[in-house]
Amino acid sequence: MRRLHALAGLLGLALVTFMAITGFVLSLQPVLETIGAAPSVGTPSVAAVAARVNDAVPGLERLVRLASGQLVAYGREGASRSAVIVDPSNGTVVGAYAPSPIFSFISELHRSLFLGPAGHGIAGVGALAILVLSVSGIGLLVRKMGGWRQLLATPRGSGAQRLHTSLARAAVLALLLTASTGIYMSAAYFELLPSSGAEFSFAPSGSGGTPAPIASLDGLAGIPLSDLRELVFPAANDPGDVFTVTTSSGEGYVDQSTGALLSFTPNSVWQQAYELIYMLHTGQGAAVLAVLLGVGALTAPALALTGSAIWWLRRRSMPRVVHNASWRDADTIILVGSESGSTWGFAANLHEGLVACGHRVHLAGMNDLRRSYPGAARLLVLTATYGDGTAPASARQFLTRLGSFSSRPAFAVLGFGDQSFPQFCGYAASVEAALAERGLEPFLPVYGIDRQSPADFAAWGNILGERLGLALALSHVPPRPRTSQFVLDERALFGAEVQAPVAMLRFTMPERSRRLRLGRQKLPRFEAGDLVGILPPGSDVPRYYSIASASSEGVLEICVRKQASGLCSEFLHALVPGDTVEAFIRRNPDFRPNRSRRPLILVGAGAGVAPLAGFVRRNRHRPVHLFFGARDPGSDFLYRDEMQEALAEGRLTSLTTAFSRVLGGGYVQDRLLEEGARVRELVERGAQIMVCGGRDMASGVREAMDACLAPLGLSVDTLKRRGLYLEDAY
User: Are residues 79 and 27 in the same domain?
Assistant: First the structure.
């Protein structure tokens, strides 16, 4: 489905964008016409209005009521013809009528590109592309969000992915309506479907008597003006001619002398269907619908741009895999779970090695797990762990899809993580347990790769080769991230007295040229809550730290707790102003306050308060309640002065602290339990909860929150599914 979606989007990119932009312009026409239409008073009949207009417009030949309600009278006086807008309430002329040349041009451009039948065919293809994109997009969106019930949950992913998802959810119904009706109209144009089904009939002859006053004609008096489409007047000086009246329900003829309705032909089912579809496609006669269609059309170019960006970034991050066998024919399946794309490089190297040994190997993401692999004897799963033991981006649907997995290949799981974290390769262990529960047999125990170690990977390759009886030599060195140089501008040290040193570090960019005084380089773009990856000397494996500032502040600010034997933390604590680091920015859009004025509960301990302080710093309009934990208020109360200032200015509503090394102290989770009633009240008001800090703290906070929420019938998991509970634990 993803391939179909990408193919339709890329091949039809220009056409879909063109159709959308011209469609948006045309959606303005019904709105402008409705605004310019003179309102009718009461429910006048066609007879009454026609009589008034006949007196006001010389040589009146035809009266047309547009879909907007605007009434246009066409007259002829000698060789001169006229078209005027008339007021239906009194028949007076409002002004001259002339179709907008701009809308006429855009309309023909939209329908046929001025290429005649071929252009109509191209427009039909454009509508088909929009329909394919909409239907496949709905399928992908449901799968990405975890089912129909989660369709409106907060989307995850990069900025382009989140914008693409939000726009798609807002516009998909309008795009489906526009595309399906456009396809129908194209089919009707090429007579693949009937558009009217009505047979041509000649007008009957009238009685030939003296024409009666128009207002007295019963055949016209019985038709309300709101039903009128067109009224054609009899030819002058021809008593036998008749009125031809077209209404929303059909066409009839009225004797100009007796007022009798001589005949009436109702619209066929096909004609009614075509008129309804035309209205749904254009919004003609329905200004509100036209606005919705126009807004939906306007999202298509934005969807095209964000979709193209997502496709390009995904393609760029994926390794090139040669000789990737079909999943139906492969004897070995490799599935990959990756958050940033680095695990794919190891998987591609494994794929290459097995193919060189004569195996038919299929490589895919864990989210692409099939119901069965008919020819597969073994399944190899390579997965990273995201956050607190959770699935990375390309594996979020794996455990759900595993429920319908029917094959029973032998399997092995290879995990990627960082041994300094308690949940080292935690998701890999969960995958191994889930596969075993499905009845699959492991032929190797789960194995962990520490910090993308090439040596660990090669060692696992030797074990795998021996188990399979192959000379399998794996060798993959992850590419070194592209970094920028940052200069330490300021540092402050906290917590030394309580044996928990935390350095607050503020970095800027180097000067372009001190000699020429060109000023400093521009900081890369980041927000509070994003991550900075720092490469300590002698290592190509980055360590990530949450950012407390935004690039608009002119500094990159982080808080780093010194870890015993921690290569990067010891390096950072030893820095002095003027020293430099090699680093890069990683966006972290999944850890952001939502755009709401509802309460925000922030929970952090130690250095974990850094991004939370950044959120408070930029808050302007919503109530924010911060729960902060540390050891001693006199030693490691980070951001004390800034928090007091935020309280005074109203950017912070309340500050609740817990200091574990003072009498009567405790931990931040204890304060949450003590404030349970207030927490429940805030959650009932739609509060979002954000937690940042160590994993043990985050685990304790989850337990405390579950206890607080239990009286409401809620849990942390429930709030997570709604995007109202976010964690950044390390």
Answer: no
Residue 728 in tokens = 């950044």
389 and 347 co-located in one domain: yes
What single DSSP character describes residue 580?
Answer: E
Q: What is the CATH number of the domain that holds 616?
A: 3.40.50.80
CA distance 341 to 393: 9
Residues 6+ apart with CB under 8 A from 445: none
**Three-class SS state of 23:** helix
CA distance 106 to 246: 28
Residue 59, helix vs strand vs coil: coil
List, for residues 353-371, the tens digit of each pLDDT value. 999 999 999 999 999 999 9
Cβ neighbours of 225 (radius 10 Å)? 21
The residue to which tokens 């144009």 are assigned: 189
Within 638-715, residue ranges assigned H as helices are 640-649, 668-674, 676-684, 695-709
- Give the DSSP per-residue string, 261-329: EEEEEEPPHHHHHHHHHHHHHH-TT-HHHHHHHHHHHHHHHHHHHHHHHHHHHHHHHSPP-SS---TTT
Give the model confidence (pLDDT) of 190-220 as tens digits: 888 877 655 556 788 888 899 999 999 999 9
**What range defines the domain where residue 663 resides?**
600-729
Distance CA 644, CA 654 (A): 10
Given pLDDT bands bounded at 50, 70 and 90, which one contains residue 477?
confident
Give the Cα-Cα-Cα angle 312, 317, 320 (nearest 5 degrees): 100
| pLDDT tens profile 695-725 | 789 889 999 999 999 999 999 989 988 889 9
Q: How many domains does the chain have?
A: 5
Could you tell me if 123 and 78 lie in one domain? no
For 126, list phi and psi in degrees, rounded to 5: -60, -45
242 and 128 both lie in a single domain: no
| DSSP, res 147 | S
pLDDT in the model for residue 388:
62
Three-class DSSP category at 369: coil
Task: Mark 499-537 as b/e (b = at least 16 C-beta within 10 Å).
Answer: ebbbbbbbbbbeeeeeeeeeeeeebeebbbbbbbbbbbe
Alpha-carbon distance 589 to 593, whole Å? 9
Q: Tokens in use for 440?
A: 């699959």
3 state DSSP class of 223: coil
Cβ pair 449, 456 in contact under 8 A: yes
Amino acid identity at 59 = G
Q: Got the DSSP string for 282-294? A: H-TT-HHHHHHHH
In-domain check, residue 475: no
Taking alpha carbons only, the member of 727, 730, 729 closest to residue 156 is 727
Domain end: 586, 616, 647, which one? Answer: 586
Q: In the prediction, which pLDDT does 149 show?
A: 72
Write out pLDDT tens, residues 513-545.
555 555 678 899 999 999 999 999 988 888 889
> In the structure encoding, which two tokens stand for residue 252, read together?
């009839």
Within a domain: residue 436?
Answer: yes
Task: Say which DSSP state 520 is in.
Answer: B
CA distance 583 to 542: 8
